[in-house]
Amino acid sequence: MRVLLAVVAVCAVTVQGAFTPSATFSQFDQECLAERNTNANFDCEANINLLKKDVLIEAYEGQKNCQVTGFAPSKPRSLSFCHKFNDNACCPPTLDMENNEMFDSMFDLGLSCRLRGDVRENPIAKLYCMNCDPQQPRYTRDVNRGADGKPKTVLVCKDWAESEFVLDPLFEPFNRCGLMVSATCQDATETDIPGRDRYLCGDDLIIPGQQYLESDNPLEDFLNEPNLGPPFLDEDTYFQIVTNTPCTGSHTNLSLSPDCLLSAEQVAERSGRSATFATDCDSNTYLADANNAQDCVAYEQELCFNGAATTAASLVAVLLSIALTLVLL
């Protein structure tokens, strides 16, 4: 993962004027100090704001920036496993490759259980590509959830999860072969060792229908099974099942993380700002406003993850392909 973070930090950003800071903030600090040695009046804060506006466009922490890269979604270098996001993505190819590797390890269940067809239609494959989905910032809340207090919460659409993972019979698609989930590394006292890559310390076979038979919320418990969720994203994220419906009423009457979707106005109010910021400011205004970045911020209605349905751009490409085929015929 340290390699992944190093890869996603590399980005060229040009700021107007003679000073061109690096896109990594630690390097920027060093460069800024060096610039001040020769120019005592150099305004580091003004330049760092320009840098932030070029690579970060979040309305509040986590809302618009990708969890993995810390940047806004952008066109990636070619992705293979999560190829549907080749036009716009929240991940680099490094993570796309890890998604593929971890998925293959989970489904390494013997010849008779080998997956057939396009494996990317598998619900867990769709789940893994959550970390590449450019919409991912819009279904992420800055809310602590779970027994271990993970700082982020990702919203998963209840209707999608029920249709893909099946509740009757419970987890039927995975029960005949099971899933080979990475074991958690532990020391001699059986204390979990953090920061270890998956499958470094072996694996465990789980039969989801049996393991979650007595659970009051089997889908949510399954998604939060240690080492089962989307690589990298699951390290600091709790996965919450929500209905794909808007929250009603005042945000003050809702729970900390309600099982509905907050409107743009409710998101704005929860962030301590006027609800009018949801409509008065849009992304273009925010990005163009070099002097008052904190005074004009865009807010958007929450989404929930629904398997990352084909994007509009991908759909257009498919339709064009069909049209071309018909013409040739």
Short summary:
With 329 residues, this protein is mostly helical. The protein contains 13 helices and 5 strands.
Largest sheet: spatial strand order: 1-2-5
Fraction of residues in helices?
Answer: 25-40%
Rg over alpha carbons = 22 Å
Round the mean pLDDT to the nearest integer and report it: 77
Elements, N to C (H/E): HHHHHEEHHEEHHEHHHH
Sheet having the most strands:
3 strands, mixed
* Global morphology: globular
Helix/strand-derived category reads mainly alpha
Question: How many β-strands, per DSSP?
Answer: 5
Alpha plus pi helix count:
13
Q: Report the portion of residues in β strands.
A: 5-15%
The N- to C-terminal Cα distance equals 49 Å
Low-confidence stretches: 1-25, 278-283, 289-297, 310-322
Task: Explain what you see.
The strands form two sheets. The protein has a three-stranded mixed β-sheet with strand order 1-2-5. A two-stranded antiparallel sheet has the order 3-4. It has helices at 2-8, 25-38, 44-55, 93-106, 123-128, 158-165, 172-175, 208-211, 218-223, 264-270, 277-280, 283-288, 312-328, and strands spanning 140-141, 152-157, 179-182, 203-206, 237-242. Residues 1-25, 278-283, 289-297 and 310-322 have low confidence and may be disordered. The chain contains 13 helices and five strands.
